[in-house]
Write a structure and sequence with these properties.
Length: 153
């Protein structure tokens, strides 16, 4: 009977370890398509950040969104266009937006709250580009410094 209990116990441990491993390993969100452009957005949590870093080279445009303090931002409205045509319009689900675009010139606009930043980029035929957008910290937005000698809060 004790051999049976030991076998059941070790099997339970093995099943528990497999379940824990599958729960803690955060998969990359599924890629989406818009106007023929494959993209993925996310990067919330350490496991998802690692997953994004592992697939970065599969995308030729890698956008990172953060506050100037270095904190990552999410729910940023991003538009990638060429000329007057918008190819990709998406609200991010984390600090990363990776896309695979044909080689060429593009304009990338990112809007956090009511501040829009724009970059003109050239996507090469081989390799890729990293684009970083950063904004003032949300807690300090619309804070005005009245004198040059004032201490920053």
């Amino acid at each position: 009977m004790s051999i049976f209990r030991a076998s059941v116990f070790s099997t339970s441990l093995l099943v528990g370890a497999i379940l824990c491993a599958s729960v803690s390993a955060q998969p990359l969100p599924a890629p989406a398509m818009q106007n023929g452009i494959r993209y993925v957005t996310g990067g919330i949590g350490e496991d998802e950040v690692k997953a994004f870093h592992s697939v970065a080279l599969k995308y030729n445009v890698r956008i990172t969104l953060s506050a100037k303090s270095g904190h990552y931002l999410s729910d940023v409205d991003v538009r990638i266009s060429t000329g007057t045509r918008s190819l990709l319009v998406v609200r991010t689900a984390g600090p990363f937006l990776f896309a695979h675009l044909p080689a060429g010139q593009y304009q990338i606009s990112a809007r956090d709250r009511h501040v829009t930043e724009t970059r003109k980029v050239v996507v090469p035929a081989r390799g890729g580009i990293d684009v970083h957008f950063s904004w003032e910290d949300p807690d300090r937005h619309d804070v005005m410094q009245l004198c040059t000698g004032c201490r920053t809060p």
